[in-house]
Amino acid sequence: MDPENKPKGPSPHYSLYQREVFKRGGDTGNLPSFSVHPEELQESTKKKLNDRGYFYANSNAGVGWTDRANREAFYRWRIVPRTCVDTNVRDLTTTIFGHKIPVPIMFAPIGINKLYSPLGELIPARVAGELGMPYCLSTAASQPIEEVAKANDEGASERNESNSVHQCDGPNGGNAKSPRFFQLYMGHDDEITLSLLNRAWKSGFDVLMLTTDTWQLGWRPTDINIANYTFYYPGTPGNEVGESDPVFMAKHKEDLKRDKGKWIDHSVWHGKAHTWEKIRWLIGEWKRISGGRPFVLKGIQCAADAKTALEFGCDGIVVTNHAGRQVDGAVGSLEVLPEIVEAVGDKMTIIFDSGIRTGADVFKAIALGAHVVMVGRLYVWGMSHEGVHGCRHVIKSLLADLDILMTVAGYPSITKDVHGNRDALRFNPSGGPPGPGGHAKL
Asked: Which residues make up the binding site for FMN (predicted)?
C-alpha cells in the first residue's frame, strides 16, 4: 500500500482508503466510530435511530424470506481468483447511457431520508456528486427535487475543482458528468405526473426510472407492529415532493389540511396498478420532455417481462425485488439475473439491485451480466451514524473493498475482465450463509 509507488491509470486507487484508515489509527489513535462490516453496521444502526427510522429502513415483506433469498443467492456464486496477473493498473470505469462513470455503482432511490439524518436526501446526493457516482432520487423523498439537484451539483463541483484521490486519471479525468436519475411512482393523475417529469428534467435529472413493483406497500409486519407510516403523522417528513409541486398543491392544498396522507395515498402508493399500455404513454411523454433521454423500468424479475420492456421501448431495466420489501417468498434477484441477461443483455442496459453489501457482491452481479449495480441500505446505515461523513465513509469503504478485491483476485478491468465473465464465478447449489451461531444453513 505504498502511496508513492502507485501507477496512474483510468481509476483512482480506492484501495488507499484502507491505508488512510490504518494510518489515522496508528498516527493519532483516531479510529472509525462505527463498523462498516455490513451485519455489524446494520446492528449498530438500531442504536442510532428510533424504531420508526430503523424499521422503515429495514422492514421486509412478510417473514423476510425474499430478503434472505437475495443474500443466499450471492453466497451460492463463488469467485474464481486468478494469479500472477498484472493488476497494478485497474480500471473500474464503465459507461451508462452515454456517460462515463468511475465505478459500476449508483445510489438507489430510497424515500424519506430525513428519518435517518436531518438533511435527508441532500446527504447521499452530495456524496454521489463528490465521488462522481450516479444518484437516483425517489418520488417519496423528504426534500424537494430542486434542492436535491443543487446538493448533487455542489458535490460534483467540489470534485471537479479538486485534485483529490476521487478523480480519475483517464482521458475523461474526474470531470465527466454522471447521469442523474429520477425514480417515479406514477399516480393516476397525468397532470401531476407530467409536472413531476418537467421538474425533474429542469433540475438536471436526465434518466427516468419507473418503479412497477410498488403500486402499494407490501405487507410488512415489523412496520405494522408500530403503525410505522410517517406520512400520516403531523410534523414528520415524507410529503415534501408533493408539497413542493405546483400542480399537486393547486389541486389538493385544501385536502392536505384534512388529510396529511393525501400525497402518498393519491400519487405514490395509491394501490391501483398500471399496465403496459400506460408504460408506453409514459415513455412517450418522457422522451418528449427530455428530448429522447433514457427510460428505465424498475421491478423486473423474469426474462419474459424483460423482453416485454424491450418491446415497449425501455432503454434499461432494474433487476430487483425491492430488496425483499414487496413480495415475500419470491426469488432472489441474483437468481434470475442470468436468464434476464441471456434474454436482453446485449440490447438494453441492465441495472442490478437487491442485496448488494460488499465489493464481492458488486463483482458477482457484474460478472453475471449487470452493467451497473445499485446500493441502498448501506448508505442509509452510514448516514444514520454520522450524516455526510457516515455516508461517505461507507461508500468509500465499498469502493476500496471492490478495488482491493479486483487487485488480489486477478481481474484488472471491470468491463474487459469481469462483465459477463461466467468463468470468473462458480455456482454452488447448496448451503447458505451462516446463521445465528455461525453455523451454515442447509
From this structure: 109-111, 138, 183, 211, 298, 353-357, 376-377
Residue 112 in marked binding region: no
Tell me the pLDDT tens digit for each residue of 397-425. 999 999 999 999 999 999 999 999 999 99
Query: Is 190 annotated for ligand binding?
Result: no
* 322 annotated as ligand-binding: yes
Residues with catalytic function = 322
Of the candidates 343, 338, 247, the one whose C-alpha atom is nearest the C-alpha of residue 303 is 343
Look up the pTM and report it.
0.95
On the question of pLDDT at 176 being above 80, the answer is no
The mean pLDDT of 359-376, rounded to a whole number, is: 98
138 is in an annotated binding site: yes
Confidence of residue 172 (pLDDT cuts 50, 70, 90): very low
Query: What residues does each domain of the chain span?
Result: 16-428
Q: Which CATH superfamily is domain 16-428 in?
A: Aldolase class I (3.20.20.70)
Q: Tens of pLDDT along 80-107?
A: 999 999 999 999 999 999 999 999 999 9
